[in-house]
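# step 3/5: fold
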Amino acid sequence: MKITEITNPLPLFFATVRAKTAIATSNLKTAIYAEGPSQAQQLLRASYGDDSVVSVNLREAESSKLLTPDQLKLKALTSTRPALQRWSHSGALSSGL
């Protein structure tokens, strides 16, 4: 393993692939690490079939970071806080709801 493989991890690509069964066809989302979009597409074609790759997109570096359980809790709490503030200012608390 080279040091550059650790310090510069492969980018994460999101893709939509078409999964065919005997009953139905569905578009599914998946993620894959690859050197670039063409390599990601080649890997997906090898896995799902040549005509099954619908789209391949690079995910933003910031949003591809894995969060710890505590970070996920904090994110959930901070995203609901504005809604709670709007609810409390709307008079719902003073009316007894």
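# step 4/5: annotate
Residues 66-97 form one domain.
# step 5/5: archive (pending)
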